[in-house]
Amino acid sequence: MTEQTSRQTATRRIVVAGGGPAAHRFADAMHTRGLEGWDVTVLTEEAHLPYDRVALSKALTDSSVDLTLGSASMWDHASLSLKTGERVVKINAEAKTVETAAGSIFEYDDLVVATGSDAMRLPIPGAEHVHVYRTLEDVWAINKAIAELTEKLGRTINAVTIGGGLLGLESAAGTEQLGATPVVINGAPWLMNTQLDEGAGQSLGRLIEAKGFTVHGGVFPSQVLSDDDGQVTGVLMADERIIPADLVIVAIGVKPRDELFRAAEGEEPQFSLGARGGVVINDFCATEVPGIWAIGEVANFEGMCLGLVAPANTMAEIVADRLHGGAATFPGFDTATKLKLSGVDVASFGDAFARTEHSLEIVYADPARGVYQKIVTTDDAKTLLGGIFVGDASPYMSLRPLLGRELSAEPGAYLTAAGGGDAPDTELPDDAILCSCNNVAAGTIRDTINGCGACDGNAPVQELGELKGCTRAGTSCGSCVPMLKKLLETELTKSGVEVSKALCEHIELSRQELFDAIRVLELTSFEEIMAKYGTGAGCDICKPTIANILASQNSAYVLDAGRGTLQDTNDRALANMQKDGTYSVVPRIAGGEITPKKLGVIAAVAEKYNLYTKITGGQRIDMFGARLEELPEIWKELVDAGFESGQAYGKSLRTVKSCVGSTWCRFGVQDSVAMAIQLELRYRGLRSPHKLKMGVSGCARECAEARGKDVGVIATADGWNLYVGGNGGATPAHAQLLAKDLDDETLLKYIDRYFMYYIRTADRLQRTARWQEELDGGIKHVEDVVVKDTLGIAEELEAAMAKHVDTYVDEWADTLKDPERLRRFRSFVNAPDQKDDSITFVSDERGQMRPATAEEKSRAGQQPVLIGASIPMRPRAENEV
């Protein structure tokens, strides 16, 4: 069959063979440049949208993670189509068509081949019983096999990875996270021998072994052993040792998928292939056949094929540029590598092995600590040629863009592990590549910051997120984000924009610094804090922030001791103000569980006070339309019935959403309702930099949407998986896995630590997702603090949470006990018995009341009321501005 598309004669047809990261980047580059006059068809044999192979380790440890590249909406463009399940098997260069395994024929004007590479396999007996590490299906199969074997054997299994390079160590680290005992077999004498010299490789080996890995180096395997049922039992080595194994993964490298370019037997070759495979391309990524291009791992340039994201992205951009009439050329491969493996930093770049004639190697090595740092320079010790870092890679990001340039300080000054402090600050030249993944130069970033980037006219960019979106820098591996942030702050400072961490004009300290000062000095009042750290009378930034900090450090009534004037409108009224000046009432319904009797109370209250009712997204019932003076009356009925404040108005825990769990559901493996109620009652009233939401799902089906919450808990057969840093909102973020298969006690302990660490260190109004992203090290840093207690503050964080739990008092129950507190709930200070008649409701078409519109009020002869405006027609309300 022939794939036909109705086109104008001027339309240029592009077919892309392959659907990996290189193909996606090419399609994105074409989309960015404009698709008018083009028709781009991407053919991929996989069933998925293009995904991030660099992040496969995430899918290994969490099979639900989404690795899709970019936005799926890109493929909705009329001139851009993605066809899954279509593997290209033949190129007919004369007819300008390709044929797929399904028998489809696609015509092209230009063909871009991005077929990538395959995992190399071992030519030894028993190799049919091993796993490889290349695709989503591969890592899903490993994940499933480890779970099944662990359950079947009733013990921790031995997961052997053959290969001590990047992929091998990544897969071994993944098996360790899945609960297996990681074993690495490496034919070379030291790990990562392609990127690291012997000293660095030996340091890495010591660090890896200290984390529980077993490494066998310098010997090759000769056979994978198995029983009669095909179950792996071990690996026979060339020296006749047998290494016990229950599962074997082979990650010894990749080979280009260049079969499309190989001539059939008896045919004249049309394409030149490299000695180790891959189709030969020129410096603008064209093959010898006109109209056929190759990008990514299948492309052989100057005798090399390389499986790194940066050169693949560069090739994709070059071909898109050439098709649009540009003259871009490929500069060659950048072999720089940086990774974090089980908490160990490893990086290498440039001439790491000092092969340049007369080059110098400046080395610091501490075998006891497992730290190795090396800088390679020219013989005059001025020009940077390369470097290797293991254990402490902090200088990498500042040095990497300076490759081939003169250093601003003595080389030894960059060896930070030697005790010389931080690496020297260096101003990057405009043509220095800051983000190698996306080939973004420092000059491009500067232009964007200063308003020449053209994302929004000529408007300057002052936010890191916006800068990443405009330039693409920091959007792939993320390792350049610290340098990107530093460059942003430097340029803003140069242009006269003050980059300050000050809370506001009245307090020079950041929120974290202020929190620590209040905690250490045990300050308890706004006046004390301002006298010591502030100036003036405060503002609507520092006042509620100080009130929040004080509330998070003790559970005293939030409106007492002068704190009421610090709060915003919602906290002062202990309710959420709506657009018509009324308030909503949200009682706590822990875990979404409620008795019919309590449902009846809510129904009676809502009917009595004529309140609009709605079930919220957090499994509670919200009642809208309560006047300020009605709040105490409403809450008295609710408190008497056993309800307490749901704190929908506070920067605090809102809800803990749950599914029905194992109590009723046939799929549930844990009692998610009981856990949700326990969590909500534990963390209720916890004041924090921003609102907090939690979710508990009773199985992997995830009905409670726990991974969209600040803290999500998902049941497993062995306990609970803990996810952190998820948010909805304008910039949604999935929560990331922090720990697996926890018992109840450990789960609570880790959540205690996480919340308290967030409360102490986050910025004002910063959600957990953004806080986590901006931490140096991200989720790994959170794991170090919360799980591994690397800062030694776990007991302190737990004690702070225990204090909160022990001293919690419901705010509305407290309010109702004190006549002085009730005085706040009056529409008019000077007319306590007068009600606000400007508030008007009408019945909607669904049988409930709603606020009257301005037109409806006008018809009734009323003056419209603007919240926040001065209204001389009536006495001024206490909470008006």
Please write out the topology.
Elements: E1 2-3, E2 12-17, H1 21-33, E3 38-44, H2 56-61, E4 80-84, E5 88-92, E6 97-100, E7 105-107, E8 110-113, E9 117-119, E10 131-132, H3 136-153, E11 158-162, H4 166-177, E12 181-186, H5 198-210, E13 214-217, E14 221-226, E15 232-237, E16 242-244, E17 247-250, E18 254-256, E19 279-280, E20 292-294, E21 299-300, H6 309-323, E22 337-341, E23 344-350, E24 360-366, E25 371-377, E26 384-390, H7 396-399, E27 433-435, E28 440-441, H8 442-449, H9 464-471, H10 481-494, H11 511-521, H12 526-533, H13 542-553, H14 569-573, E29 576-577, E30 583-585, H15 596-608, E31 612-615, E32 621-626, H16 631-640, E33 653-658, H17 672-683, E34 692-697, E35 711-716, E36 719-724, E37 736-742, H18 744-761, H19 768-774, H20 778-786, H21 794-807, H22 811-816, H23 819-822, E38 841-843, E39 849-851, H24 854-859
Parallel strand pairs: 1-7, 2-3, 2-8, 3-4, 8-20, 10-17, 11-12, 11-17, 12-13, 19-21, 33-34, 34-35
Antiparallel strand pairs: 5-6, 6-7, 9-18, 14-15, 15-16, 22-23, 23-26, 24-25, 25-26, 27-28, 29-30, 30-32, 31-32, 35-36, 36-37, 38-39
Helix pairs in contact: 1-6, 8-10, 11-13, 18-21
Structural class: alpha/beta
Low-confidence stretches: 3-9, 863-881
Count of helical segments? Answer: 24
β-strand number: 39
Strand order of the largest sheet: 4-3-2-8-20
Radius of gyration: 31 Å
For the largest beta-sheet, the strand count, sense and barrel status come to: 5 strands, parallel
